[in-house]
Structure formats: structure tokens, C-alpha cells
Amino acid sequence: MDPVNALICMAAAAWIGQIALGWQQINRFNQAIGTLSKSGQICIGRSAGRFKPRIILALAVSNEGRITGNFVMKGLTVFARPYSENALTGKTLSELHPETLFPGNKALREALTLAISNKRC
């Protein structure tokens, strides 16, 4: 096999690998949303940024406005996994102040601000 064909094959394999890992990440996100939706209404916020790790924050809010569950997905690659942020669970939406909860993490503050300002919550 000549070097050009080898390079094309390697690029195709990397592309297929990226598709497979992206699909796996979407499945993890969908499973986490499905589990969270059983706890209440879902509010989602996402931080902005093109070349820095993005953060997706999902909150499950009860009818009384209390957070019954949450998860955070943070990362730059397809290996990001959802994890729960214990500082949010049990609080009401009016008690949440992103600046005091996450003073050192601007992206998480931004995602939380967008999640609680969602008109559907």
C-alpha cells in the first residue's frame, strides 16, 4: 500500500472512530436526561465557547420549584460524562445564586444562569 492510500485509510478510520465516540456520548446524555426527567421538569443551560471546554447543566425541578436532581457534562472531547453537582440538589430556584455557588468557574456559572432563566422552568 502506498503512503497516500495509507493516509486516506488512517483518516477514514479516525473519522469513523469520532462518529462512534460521538454517538456514545449522545447516548450517555440521553440516558442521563431520561433518568432526570423522572424527577421533574427539565431545565438545561450551556456555556459558550469555541475552543474551551463547554459545560451542559441540566436541572430537574419539582412543581414547587425545588431542584430534585441535576447533572453536569463538562469537557472538550467526546469522553465527557455526566456527573451530579451536590451543591444544587434540594435548593429552590430562587435560592440559586451562580456567583456564590461557583465563584471560580465562569462556564458553570453561565450554564446555571441560562438554566434558571429558562422560561419553561
TrEMBL record:
It comes from the Bacteria. InterPro entries: Glucitol_operon_activator. It holds the Pfam family GutM. This is Transcriptional regulator GutM.
